[in-house]
């Protein structure tokens, strides 16, 4: 029986992918495909809830539900779809969040109809395994991230890193867990899955309801991304019990105000780099990240700076309950930037027990050349003595060569780190070649309170040696890119070949193909 | 092509007859805001990433821009764009295109017409075109169904070209990485490291007084630090005289000497070069004469190239970053046996040359597949053909080529 279900799910996944390719040929990007799929799937699933056995009352305004779309075709369908998107965007709760500022991206209503009638309507999506739905959706999100021009890559933290972080942080039932830069929801979902798997059997009904409805909070700046996040959570069964009530995701700039409530755990990967954010224009034409140059000035902050990652560190500290814990991905410059950076590091190590730093390898993020780390800390009660005693640094950067395609980072690559961390018994940690500890006293004497500790250990001139993949690996990727580019040219040439006597175009492409063989 | 020779269903017409072009309006600085709808200026269309000013109030519907609208810039550059953002308002010198034909076909027709105009005016475009001339530009218009089919085809073709260009751009980035990785391998495989002082002598240069012309313009090549740019130095911009040289043996360096730039905020600091001629140099670079029984100059040169970033960090600190003779002497490089060094140098040079050649090919691909090719593709596909360029018409043949009323928008 399970085998049948698995086969069916796999077939479904394949269908969704195939359709994506058809639409891509029509000019629809992965991002837009995921977006449209989000609207349609959501409506279909909302409709399914009104059917037996749940037989719930419909939360969708009359006349704008799934069946009203299914009944139409052609220009009527197009018009009604546009109206539906507009009307639902004004609804409260999760419904409004999903549909706010939504746009129809189908150039051809016939394709829209086909997706509705052939692809989505025949399935009972609410019964499809949450994992399958989630995997497919996340697969599409990841493809979107890989589509580098869209810039969506900056929202994507490698799954392997998320999994390792969650595993050492050990979220438990009853905790409140938040991500103030939640992107498409990777951390929140991983934490949810971890709790379900480890504790699912022993959790009672109340605990399960708490896990579903009250555990997770996310904040995301960009409407489009928040939409994907809410849908991602929804497909995994989080926060969708009542689609009219407050969704678990808020759309706003988390840094603007002090958090209204504190939580037990924060997992986050704040967006990369000042420059990356400044160049990103959202689909609405507005620069993402607001006015990236402005220094954020808040009562609860230790220092005023325009460095986004430093500000997120301060913000996350404010989000934590006393004894709450956090794991945050930060770029190298957070460890050594002077001025406000020094003040912030000093205060962070005083008020929190900053106990572990994981140096991540390069080549794992969609953003080019990123050097990042994960900082683990716990908020402690106020005290005159510093809360940090020792900082353990795990080096997973030196001599680690990864790329996005030919040598991807997988969870087992980080097993060494998880083992060394000893999440259940950190007092039993032992030093090793790649795992060393620094005492607070030594750290506090360093000029600028510089936390780039590992860099001093090895001969400076070798520091960069760890950053690049082996030449053969890079060469293989180059060939892949050039071949793909030439294939596209060849496709264009083939299309033109049928109709063109324009010597110039043909000549150009053919000559190109000839030379680069 | 005359009207008589057009395929059936096609007609000869002009840009002015297939749509209306509405100029935007001026927005004074006082009207700029940070909330409301973005004001589209030409720079917002031509330069992605340029911030917008916003406008809070209402505007005439002719100045409203919605997603999918075509915009024609009419100043600085003459070009057509599709607006893909949120509802916005239009600044002057940009025209919103009200289409009476298939809007996607209209977009390509405009692309084609503007390419043609630019070609005729040798790229300047703006100088020679008036609104009337523009509106009077002749175009061949197919039936409605075919408009859509041609537009669809062009969209796919242009997407293919853009995709290809993106691939080549990425290949370029990877080639730079490959260069670095190859050099990095030299270091990783070089084994045991020694200080430069152990394998050679380090000298700091000098600059003769600029006030005394007798010290300059002689026949001794004199290297300034900007010329130390990862290259072999065969000639220099400036020369000094024998008088300017002073104590010869210490200041005139033989061919094969490796220079290392020590000072500078920009990219110069950390760069190296090898002398192919005897030369003197300024105090901003160090000259390293290697003991050839222990280290080949070329090997040292490639090590310094590989360690460029690390060398720059040696001076470190937020004050004037700079190396000096002492810190250069203490820099470490691998020092394998001479035979190994020679083999490494040969291998690196061969690989770097191959990378150079490949970079040239990719550059050519980018060049050939660039704007000019796209223009040709558009021009060719727009050319009337009786067989039709589309693969299947998706609308009934009876739909009019140009929408009846002027006011009929999408």
Task: Walk me through what this model shows.
The complex is a heterodimer of chains A (517) and B (410). Chain A is an alpha/beta fold and 517 residues long. In chain A, 46% of the residues lie in helices and 11% in strands. Chain A has helices spanning 2-25, 30-48, 66-70, 74-88, 93-99, 109-120, 130-146, 159-169, 186-199, 205-213, 223-235, 274-279, 308-319, 332-336, 340-351, 415-421, 440-444, 454-457, 471-497, 503-515, and strands at 177-179, 216-220, 249-251, 263-268, 320-331, 352-359, 372-379, 390-395, 435-439. A 9-stranded mixed sheet of chain A has the order 3-2-1-4-5-7-6-8-9. Chain A starts with a helix and ends with a helix. The model of chain A is unreliable at 273-292, 459-466 and 499-517 (pLDDT under 50). Chain B is of the alpha+beta class. Chain B is 37% helix and 20% strand. Chain B is built from 12 helices and 20 strands. Chain B has helices at residues 42-46, 103-120, 131-135, 144-188, 196-199, 242-245, 248-251, 297-306, 308-315, 325-330, 338-368, 371-382; strands spanning 11-14, 19-23, 37-40, 53-55, 64-65, 70-75, 77-82, 88-90, 94-99, 138-141, 193-195, 200-204, 216-223, 231-233, 238-240, 258-261, 272-275, 280-281, 285-290, 332-334. In chain B, strands 12-19-16-17-14 form a 5-stranded mixed sheet. In chain B, a hairpin with a 1-residue loop joins strand 6 and strand 7 (77-82). In chain B, helix 4 (144-188) packs across helix 8 and helix 4 (144-188) runs antiparallel to helix 12. Chain B starts with 10 loop residues before the first strand and ends in a 28-residue tail after the last helix. In chain B, 38% of the residues are buried. Residues 388-397 and 405-410 of chain B have low confidence and may be disordered. Classes of the chains: A alpha/beta (517), B alpha+beta (410). Chains A and B meet through helix 19 and helix 20 of A and helix 4, helix 9, helix 11 and helix 12 of B.
Would you spell out the secondary-structure blueprint of this structure?
The complex is a heterodimer of chains A (517) and B (410).
Chain A: H1 2-25, H2 30-48, H3 66-70, H4 74-88, H5 93-99, H6 109-120, H7 130-146, H8 159-169, E1 177-179, H9 186-199, H10 205-213, E2 216-220, H11 223-235, E3 249-251, E4 263-268, H12 274-279, H13 308-319, E5 320-331, H14 332-336, H15 340-351, E6 352-359, E7 372-379, E8 390-395, H16 415-421, E9 435-439, H17 440-444, H18 454-457, H19 471-497, H20 503-515
Parallel strand pairs in A: 1-2, 1-4, 2-3, 4-5, 6-8
Antiparallel strand pairs in A: 5-7, 6-7, 8-9
Helix pairs in contact in A: 1-7, 2-11, 4-6, 5-11, 7-11, 8-9, 8-16, 19-20
Chain B: E1 11-14, E2 19-23, E3 37-40, H1 42-46, E4 53-55, E5 64-65, E6 70-75, E7 77-82, E8 88-90, E9 94-99, H2 103-120, H3 131-135, E10 138-141, H4 144-188, E11 193-195, H5 196-199, E12 200-204, E13 216-223, E14 231-233, E15 238-240, H6 242-245, H7 248-251, E16 258-261, E17 272-275, E18 280-281, E19 285-290, H8 297-306, H9 308-315, H10 325-330, E20 332-334, H11 338-368, H12 371-382
Parallel strand pairs in B: 3-8, 13-18, 14-17
Antiparallel strand pairs in B: 1-10, 2-9, 3-4, 5-8, 6-7, 6-9, 11-20, 12-19, 13-15, 16-17, 16-19
């Amino acid at each position: 029986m399970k085998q049948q279900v698995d086969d069916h799910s796999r077939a479904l996944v394949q269908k969704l992918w195939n359709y994506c390719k058809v639409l891509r040929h029509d000019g629809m990007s992965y991002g837009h495909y995921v977006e449209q799929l989000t609207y349609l799937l959501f409506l279909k699933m909302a409709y399914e809830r009104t059917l037996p056995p749940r037989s719930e009352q419909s939360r969708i305004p009359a006349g704008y539900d799934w069946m009203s779309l299914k009944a139409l075709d052609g220009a009527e369908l197009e018009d009604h779809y546009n109206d539906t998107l507009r009307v639902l965007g004004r609804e409260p709760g999760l419904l409004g969040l999903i549909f706010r500022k939504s746009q129809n991206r189908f150039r051809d209503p016939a394709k829209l109809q086909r997706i509705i009638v052939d692809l989505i309507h025949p399935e009972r999506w609410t019964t499809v395994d949450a994992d399958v739905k989630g995997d497919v959706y996340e697969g599409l999100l990841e493809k979107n991230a890989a589509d580098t021009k869209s810039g969506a890559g900056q929202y994507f933290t490698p799954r392997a890193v998320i999994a390792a972080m969650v595993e050492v942080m050990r979220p438990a039932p009853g905790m409140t867990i938040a991500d103030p830069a939640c992107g498409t929801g990777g951390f929140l979902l991983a934490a949810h899955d971890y709790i379900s798997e480890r504790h699912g059997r022993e959790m009672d009904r109340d605990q399960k309801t708490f896990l579903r409805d009250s555990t997770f909070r996310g904040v995301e700046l960009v409407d489009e991304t928040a939409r994907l996040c809410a849908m991602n959570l929804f497909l995994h069964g989080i926060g969708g019990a009542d689609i009219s009530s407050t969704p678990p995701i808020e759309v706003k700039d988390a840094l603007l105000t002090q958090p209204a409530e504190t939580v037990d755990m924060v997992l986050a990967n704040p967006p990369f780099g000042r420059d990356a954010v400044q160049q990103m224009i959202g689909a609405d034409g507005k620069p993402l990240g607001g006015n990236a140059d402005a220094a954020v000035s808040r009562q609860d902050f230790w220092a005023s700076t325009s460095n986004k990652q430093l500000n997120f560190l301060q913000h996350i500290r404010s989000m934590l309950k006393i004894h709450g814990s956090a794991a945050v991905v930060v770029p190298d410059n957070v460890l050594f930037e002077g001025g406000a950076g020094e003040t912030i590091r000093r205060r962070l190590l005083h008020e929190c027990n900053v106990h572990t730093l994981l140096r991540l390898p390069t080549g794992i993020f969609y953003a080019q050349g990123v050097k990042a780390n994960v900082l683990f800390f716990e908020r402690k009660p106020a005290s005159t003595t510093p809360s940090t005693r020792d900082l353990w640094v795990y080096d997973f950067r030196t001599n680690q060569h990864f790329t996005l395609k030919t040598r991807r980072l997988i969870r087992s690559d980080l097993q060494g780190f998880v083992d060394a961390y000893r999440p259940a018994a950190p007092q039993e940690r032992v030093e090793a070649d790649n795992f060393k500890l620094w005492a607070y006293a030594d750290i506090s004497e360093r000029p600028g309170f510089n936390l780039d500790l590992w860099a001093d250990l090895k001969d400076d001139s070798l520091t960069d040696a760890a950053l690049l993949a082996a030449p053969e690996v890079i060469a293989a990727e180059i060939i892949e890119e050039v071949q793909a580019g030439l294939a596209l040219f060849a496709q264009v040439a083939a299309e033109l070949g049928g109709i063109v006597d324009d010597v110039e175009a043909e000549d150009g492409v053919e000559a190109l193909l000839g030379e680069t063989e | 092509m005359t009207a008589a020779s057009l395929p059936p269903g096609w007609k000869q017409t002009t840009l002015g007859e297939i749509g209306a072009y509405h100029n935007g309006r001026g927005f004074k600085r006082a009207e700029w805001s940070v909330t409301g709808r973005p004001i589209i200026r030409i720079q917002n269309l031509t330069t992605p990433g340029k911030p917008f000013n916003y406008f809070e109030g209402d505007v005439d519907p002719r100045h409203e821009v919605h997603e999918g609208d075509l915009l024609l810039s009419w100043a600085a550059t003459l070009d057509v764009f599709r607006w893909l953002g949120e509802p916005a308002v239009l600044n002057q010198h940009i025209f919103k295109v009200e289409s009476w034909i298939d809007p996607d076909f209209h977009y390509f027709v405009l692309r084609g017409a503007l390419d043609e105009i630019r070609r005729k005016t040798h790229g300047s475009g703006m100088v020679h075109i008036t609104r009337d001339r523009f509106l009077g530009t002749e175009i061949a218009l197919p039936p409605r169904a075919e408009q859509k089919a041609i537009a669809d085809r062009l969209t796919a073709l242009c997407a293919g070209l853009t995709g290809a260009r993106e691939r080549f751009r990425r290949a370029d980035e990877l080639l730079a990485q490959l260069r670095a990785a190859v050099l990095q391998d030299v270091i990783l495989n070089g084994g045991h490291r020694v200080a430069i002082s152990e394998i050679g002598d380090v000298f700091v240069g000098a600059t003769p007084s600029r006030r005394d012309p007798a010290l300059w313009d002689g026949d001794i090549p004199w290297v300034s630090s900007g010329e130390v740019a990862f290259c072999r130095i065969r000639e220099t911009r400036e020369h000094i005289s024998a008088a300017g040289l002073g104590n010869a043996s210490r200041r005139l360096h033989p061919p094969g000497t490796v220079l290392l730039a020590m000072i500078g905020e920009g990219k110069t600091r950390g760069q190296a070069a090898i002398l192919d001629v005897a030369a003197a140099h300024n105090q901003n670079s160090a000259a390293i004469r290697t003991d050839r029984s222990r280290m080949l100059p070329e090997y040292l040169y490639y090590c310094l190239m590989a360690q460029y970033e690390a060398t720059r960090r040696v001076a470190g600190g937020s004050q004037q970053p700079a190396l000096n003779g002492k810190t250069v002497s203490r820099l470490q490089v691998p020092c394998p046996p001479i035979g190994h060094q020679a083999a490494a140098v040969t291998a690196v040079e061969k690989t770097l040359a191959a990378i150079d050649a490949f970079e040239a090919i990719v550059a050519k691909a980018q060049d050939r597949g660039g704007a000019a090719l796209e223009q040709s593709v558009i021009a060719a596909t727009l050319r009337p053909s009786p067989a039709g360029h589309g693969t299947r018409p998706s609308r009934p043949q009876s739909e009019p080529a140009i929408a009846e009323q002027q006011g009929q928008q999408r």
